[in-house]
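Hi F.,

I've been meaning to write this up properly since the lab meeting, where we talked about keeping a consistent format for the predictions we share between groups. The idea is simple: the sequence comes first, exactly as it goes in, then the structure tokens exactly as they come out, then a line or two of notes. No screenshots and no reformatting. I'm using this chain as the first example so we have something concrete to point to.
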Amino acid sequence: MSEAIDRYVAHNEGRFLDELKELLRIPSVSTLPDHNADTTRAAEYCAAKMKIAGLENIEVIKTARHPLVYADWLHAPGKPTVLCYGHFDVQPPDPLELWESPPFEPTERNGNLYARGSADDKGQMYSQIKAIEALHAVNGKLPVNVKFLLEGEEEVGGLSVAEYVEKNPAKLKADVALVCDTEMYEDGLPTLNIGLRGLVYLEIEARGPARDLHSGLYGGAAPNAVFGLVELLAKAKDAKGRIQIPGIYDDVDPPSAEEKASWTHLPFNEAEYLASEVGSTALTGELEYSVFERTWARPTFEVHGIAGGFTGAGAKTVIPAKAVAKVSVRLVPHQNPEKIVASVKKFVKENAPSGVAFEVRVLSSGPGLMVNTDHPAIRVAAKAFSDIFGKATVYTRSGGSIPIVGDFAKHIGIPTILMGFGLPDDGLHSPNEKYKIRNYFDGIRTLAHFLEEYGK
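Output, unedited:
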């Protein structure tokens, strides 16, 4: 990267960190109505900083739920256009008692910045704005055309941004999208994510008797909604981790021999992974597949929570009338979410225990996808990443889902560069979420360098 850009970032590191801390102090928890005003405040904060960075046509766009932020700079004729995406909403911080420092008071410890949203995604998203500022401040212009689209609903499904992308493909037209909401494989190892699993998120509701019943008077005769739900869910996966829902493995393309071979060169120790990342006594799932295959290239069925009956202090002998489970199915590229939903609904209908009625509600869905590593922007991004971090860039997949990537492919017809600066131990969605401060600054440098090189 240019020495002038490097000097500008180095000179402004203190201010850049203070600004990120200010953004992190805004408790923009998108799932909680009490924080709606905070989520809007985070949108307005980003919009104000975009203006200072030199972006134009800035809009805070109202939606049915939380706002979007759009901005652009389109004064580089003949140069490619990059659509930058990120989100400023965060997960709830609970359980609060497990935080070593307040979740919305950013705290520096051991070279990390601890706060809810520090890695997911405020720190990474804000790096994009600061990269634009550095380029504009040093050169008075940008090396490429740039559009920004930020959202405040990523943690609750991203319905508003999906609708906006579908309705505004011409406005958002670009050559490539850039998303900084992923992680490096390990500290110091530049990593581009080239594959994402899709996600179908469901609520499965069970109803037994018309009302909660006395278990002494009716136990043994009346259906129990909680037990019926547990019985159904237990049928969905066998003891070897194989999903028992017919059709769930249709259209699953295995990774190529070349891709699997490349994974063997990644630094990975299964015992260390079990101890330091998972923290359980054993790994589960389809043991005939490697950990990478299980987490990156195979469908999954997970139960996230069950509610129903009595769980308070003391005893209350009821037969619950109602129970609800939150369930997700992760999809691999080429699987159709609608087909998977139909398979789940058919399975529920055919396996419902006697006396228990079920309803399946779809909260969100999106396909998995792969990115072509031969795309010019991907090659430039890999080189830029390598230049800043001093190591060859590796390509990995992610077991997670970023629905907006599918929306960009479907409605705008562009690939997405998934260039993240987080680390595997950042604790996303968990207490004591952190972001390595050096990665924040090096992320700004990497993004500026990528835009410079792509402009050539």
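Notes:
The first strand starts at residue 56 and ends at 61.
The chain has a mean pLDDT of 96.

If this format works for you, I'll send the rest the same way.

G.
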